[in-house]
Amino acid sequence: MICNSGNRKIKRITYNSSFQKQGRHDRSTQSPDIHVGENLFLTLATTMKNLSDKQAEIIQFFDGKTEEEQLRIIEEVRQYSEVQTVEDFKAEFRALFEQKNLSGIGVIYEAISKNTHKWSDLYLEEFERGFQAASQSPSPFEVLESLEELCYPEKENVKTQDEIIQLLGSYLNHEKPALRFKAIWYLGDWITENIKEKHSNLIQKIKQMLKSDSNWRVRYVASLILIDWKEFPKNHKSSLIHKLKIRFLNPFDMQ
What we know:
The chain is mainly alpha-helical. It has a single domain (13-248), classed as Leucine-rich Repeat Variant, CATH 1.25.10. It has eleven helices and two strands. A two-stranded parallel ribbon has the order 1-2. It is globular and about 60 Å long.
């Protein structure tokens, strides 16, 4: 699956052909999931001794590589991550890849999305790190775009799911529109159908933002999420000016 909010994103490997991704990715134009046969990578044994061996390939992930080459890189990183401790792998990838869009860190996030048991705490840490960095950055959207691949794990298996949701919810009132925008966007992923009632307070908050947020792009992303959740207020009508902005301007251009 491609997470696409305006920039190139990594295609998701799924090892179970019956798996269907739920949530916000249905909202944007993208390619279907790549369903990889379970035996495809059984003979692929990575020779990677450290991430530095693949740093250039990872950073240049989108530069002229075939789909098979991209999948191979992700799988090699995944295999390598599985034999590392969480602390060692975390220190290594953070030293090599900036937490910003198209830096290569998305490949790392994609690779660790397969093992939710091992990496659940790290998903939360990376969201915390990203939003904290974005709050101090002159280009917050570029930082927050790097978190897109953290949408890939199967949410019901992530033990920190509720903590991630509460963290994202805490940024709905942030002074920077980019942080409010991305908090809503990611909540669209992490508040899954089975826990909507549990987090109804955040859904109601986003409904309020649809009506009253000062930034039209934030109001726009709120509408996308509410439609996706089937929670869009029936009596809500956007102004003509708002509709024209959506039509003629890029609603994802938060810089």
